[in-house]
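Protocol step 4 of 5: obtain the predicted structure for the target chain.
Materials: sequence only (see below). No template structures provided, no constraints applied. The aim of this step is simply to have a reference model before the mutagenesis design in step 5. Sequence pasted as it appears in the construct record:
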Amino acid sequence: SFYHYCKERDIFRYKHSLKTRYDILYNFALSLGVDPKLFSDTVKFDFMLTSGKGALPDCIDMIEDRKFLKKAKEYVYNEKWVKANLPQALGLSSNELSKKLSYGFFNYDIPNNTNKKEKGIIFFDNDGEHYYAEFKIR
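Step 4 output (structure tokens):
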């Protein structure tokens, strides 16, 4: 069990940051034989949705490159796409958007299922309300 995993490693003896907690959960999943890439995508989705911007936990590889970010921003600055997929972001200035958006590349169809599917997700944190929208990268 997760409890025994943590107890055996003295994890309960110390306070851990949110990022470290994700790493602990990731390592526990690996100890059970869970697919590391699939679980990494799952952790990445949860972290980016709830924690927004900032450095990712160590268990998540940063695979977003300039080409990917350029593609994501094409969607963000397409008012028709935003209206259909992230209407909460309509009317915000570029400066406001840059503060509230983050972008993730995923190898699986998280959160819909565990099938392999390359896609991008734009995360929008609007004063504690969390939204996301998927986009095609190819």
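Step 4 remarks: The chain has a mean pLDDT of 93. Strands lie at 101-108, 116-126, 129-135.
Proceed to step 5.
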